[in-house]
Specification:
seven-stranded parallel beta sheet, 24 helices, about 45% helix, globular
């Protein structure tokens, strides 16, 4: 196999040669193979040429059906082979990763028709793998013990063998256990409080083995936004600990569904503190020979941690529709934070002396020091509470305090946009009402390339959009009645998108009481692994898929998806992150809530028409609000040319 899919001429600029080859692909090779090539696709290809040639950031907004994935894959693969470093394709979530590499997907098509032999490997997030330590607990500690014992029995033989491994293979992927619910998986899957550094099974762990595999990719590493941002956030720390970064050095990044990167950055930049984790970690030091002064400080630190979390427990409030708890800062809580910080500082000073005595295990000592440094960084944000966002999450073993810097712009600027590599933001929805300012400003970008091309689909004849006007303001029963009516109209074949898990659960509980839907088969997000849920929906034409996380990226062409029902307008949640954004905005509704909602709504509507032959209906259900007419006007402007906003007629 040749390095490049064209005859490389050293006397000519590489980017120009790639552009010529891409032109051949779209004008000759793919049409001869039976592909329909669109003008919008070719236009996008020539726009990306500049971004790769000049190593710039580009917002590539291309409507549904333009084939944008094929375009950025061609450039990314060629650039990877030119630089001899892989390109990273970062998708919005794990389900989109699976769709990119599925049989018959875009990578498979390029392999088949262009004879590229693409080396593309998946870099999945740690929480997509079984944790061997948690699995040991789960198979004895829960009512589903038989499930976990079966999972344990299916582990590769080398996992629990004391002998040196002669051969191994990756295992333990969430996708391999499709019939486990999300709740069941959480009991055995990795989570952020698992300390892999001291795990005696880490070298036989499926996550570790998979990481070694994708690091060797020659062309593409495909991961999630969350994982890419976690790579950036942990890069320096992992190097200090003598570990490899999560991702190898790479030549370019494509952020598919790039408008969601800010949310991934915020998630990655959070610090998580938990009393039981701190206590377990700090008491490791007592297993060595330590001076009495350090032992006393450790006991005091455990008491201070418990005291801080006790006060925190009295300073949290529920947020409707969110698992996050609002933290109500007061002087008592801030005082406890300062006390805890002081004792951590004293322990850090003591550890300097201990390290010189060589009485503590160096590896354990380094882990504790790293954790204490993380805690100090997190707690220091409380000294300027206007610079942090925090919330709490409840679990069976106590509260988790989550702390995040108020802005992530500086981090994105330093660790993403200053790298001088080509960075592509690709999506059908990057602009808001004609401009890219909302997405660019959220990430602190003021220097970028951009373009926008519309879809080539005939939406006026392929799509109908309904938005009911409610007699009683859009009550739950009114929504149920309309949803059932629309489900009957298409005999299932529908995607229901919900704004929150609570909305989905309420619908799931009530739909069984509607005899009109008794013969319909429903799939609910959370009941099984998401990619298998999507596959089942596509295979069973008359089924119904209900989800919270599939507003973006779901690609199900054909009659299986002929009906999209949007249960609520997807305004941002009333959680601490968006509360902080609203506090700093001059007009919170216009600057925060409305642009977010319009982008997500456009994405949700984009799930319906995925090919020239598709047709169907969209129903947008919105409770009556003070700005109802303004909202309807914004939604009208969002619709493709020729599509009118209608009111459904009963029995239509």
């Amino acid at each position: 196999m040749e390095r490049y899919p064209f005859d490389y001429d050293h006397s000519r600029p590489f980017s120009q040669q790639v552009s010529d080859w891409v032109a051949d692909v779209f004008y000759d090779i793919l049409p001869e193979a039976g592909f329909e090539v669109r003008d919008e696709q070719i236009y996008m290809a020539f726009q990306l040429e500049r971004a790769f040639a000049e190593k710039q950031v580009i917002f590539a907004e291309a409507g549904v059906g333009t084939g944008k994935t094929l375009v950025y894959l061609l450039y990314a693969i060629c650039y990877a082979r030119y630089t001899r470093k892989p390109a990273v394709i970062a998708c919005a979530d794990e389900s989109l990763i699976e769709q990119l590499v599925k049989p018959g997907g875009d990578i498979a098509k390029l392999n088949e028709h262009l004879n590229l032999a693409i080396d593309a490997r998946l870099g999945k997030s740690p929480d997509q793998y079984v944790c061997l330590v948690k699995l040991d607990d789960a198979r004895y500690g829960y009512e589903d013990t038989a499930l976990y014992k079966e999972l344990y029995s299916e582990l590769p033989e080398f996992v629990n063998s004391p002998a040196a491994m002669q051969r191994f293979h990756a295992y333990g992927d969430r996708k391999d256990y499709p019939h486990m619910t999300d709740e069941q998986w959480d009991r055995a899957g990795w989570d952020t409080f698992q300390d892999c550094f001291v795990c005696d099974k880490r070298h036989r762990c499926g996550q570790t083995l998979s990481r070694d595999h994708y690091r060797r990719a020659a062309d593409l590493i495909i991961c999630s936004h969350d994982f890419y941002m976690e790579h950036l956030w942990t890069y320096e720390g992992r190097k200090r600990e003598g570990q490899l970064p999560l991702l190898p050095e790479h030549c370019a990044v494509v952020f598919d569904e790039g408008h969601l990167l800010e949310a991934a950055a915020q998630k990655a930049l959070t610090y998580k503190l938990k009393h039981v984790v701190f206590e377990e970690l700090i008491t490791r030091l007592l297993k060595g020979e330590v001076r009495e002064s350090l032992a006393v400080l450790i006991d005091e630190a455990i008491d201070r941690s418990q005291s801080m979390f006790d006060v925190l427990e009295n300073q949290i409030a529920d947020i409707p529709g969110s698992e996050r708890k609002q933290v109500l800062l007061n002087e008592r809580l801030l005082q406890e934070v300062r006390f805890f910080q002081d004792i951590l500082t004293k322990i850090e000073e003591e550890l300097v002396f201990e390290s010189e005595l060589y009485t503590l295990n160096d590896y354990q000592l380094r882990i504790v020091e790293e954790h204490l440094e993380m805690m100090q960084k997190a707690l220091s944000l409380f000294q300027h509470s206007d610079k942090l966002i925090c919330w709490a999450v409840e679990s069976v073993n106590g509260l988790t305090l989550v702390i995040m810097p108020r802005t992530v712009k500086e981090v994105l600027q330093e660790r993403v946009f200053s790298t001088r590599i080509p960075i592509v933001f690709s999506s059908a929805t990057l602009s808001v009402e004609g401009g890219f300012d909302y997405v660019a400003d959220s990430m602190g970008l003021d220097d970028y390339l951009s373009f926008s091309v519309d879809s080539s689909y005939d939406y006026a004849n392929q799509m109908q959009v309904y938005m009911p006007k409610w007699k009683f303001g859009g009550t739950f029963s009114e929504k149920m009645k309309t949803a059932v009516q629309m489900l009957e109209r298409t005999e299932g074949r529908a995607l229901l998108l919900f704004r929150t898990k609570d909305e989905l659960q309420q619908f799931k509980n009530e739909i069984v009481h509607y005899p009109e839907c008794n013969g319909m088969r429903f799939g609910f997000e959370g009941d099984m692994e998401i990619s298998h849920l999507i596959e089942a929906f596509q295979r069973d034409e008359e089924s119904v898929l209900c989800a919270v996380s599939l507003w973006e990226g779901l690609d199900v062409p054909g009659p299986s998806l002929s009906n999209v029902i949007l249960w609520s307008l997807p305004f941002p949640p009333q959680d601490p992150v968006f509360m902080a954004k609203r506090q700093t905005a001059l007009n919170p509704f216009e600057e925060v809530d409305l642009p977010y909602m319009l982008l997500r709504l456009k994405q949700g509507m984009g799930r319906l028409i995925r090919s020239q032959d598709d047709n169907g209906v969209i129903t947008i259900m919105c409770e009556v609000q003070p700005k109802m007419e303004l909202l309807r006007e914004h939604i009208r402007l969002l619709l493709p040319s020729g599509v009118e906003l209608q009111e459904p007629v009963e029995g239509d």
